[in-house]
Amino acid sequence: MAIHNSPLVGNVAAFPVQMATTLKARPTMLCDETPDVVKEVAKTLVRKGLRADVLELSEGAGLNAQVRASLRAACFKHGSVH
Q1: CA pair distance 34, 71, nearest whole angstrom
Q2: Could you write out the three-class secondary structure of 17-39?
């Protein structure tokens, strides 16, 4: 599935705060997505100013190492976010 066709990416872009809350409540949703989708979700949330939420999400129970790494990498690769 192409990244731009992912419903998760579209929802994160349109409703970042609500999706960050949802993902923190159920972080295993990200384990069903491709690595590219996880990276795009994390980058989008960081760009929207939700870096702390992404870091908190990376500590969520049930995440595999690849998802955790993608979430953490997005927090530190994309410069400062206001």
Answers
A1: 13
A2: HHHHHHHHHCHHHHHHCCHHHHH
pLDDT tens-digit readout, 25-48: 999 999 989 999 999 999 999 999
Q: What is the dihedral angle through the alpha carbons of 70, 76, 80, 81, rounded to the nearest 10 degrees?
A: 20
Sequence spans of domains, the chain: 17-77
Q: Do the beta carbons of residue 8 and residue 33 sit within 8 Å?
A: yes
Residues 6+ apart with CB under 8 A from 53: 20, 21, 24, 45
Give first-to-last CA distance, the chain, whole Å. Answer: 31
Q: Which DSSP symbol is given to 78?
A: S
pTM of the model: 0.85
Asked whether the beta carbons of 66 and 35 are under 8 A apart, the reply is: yes
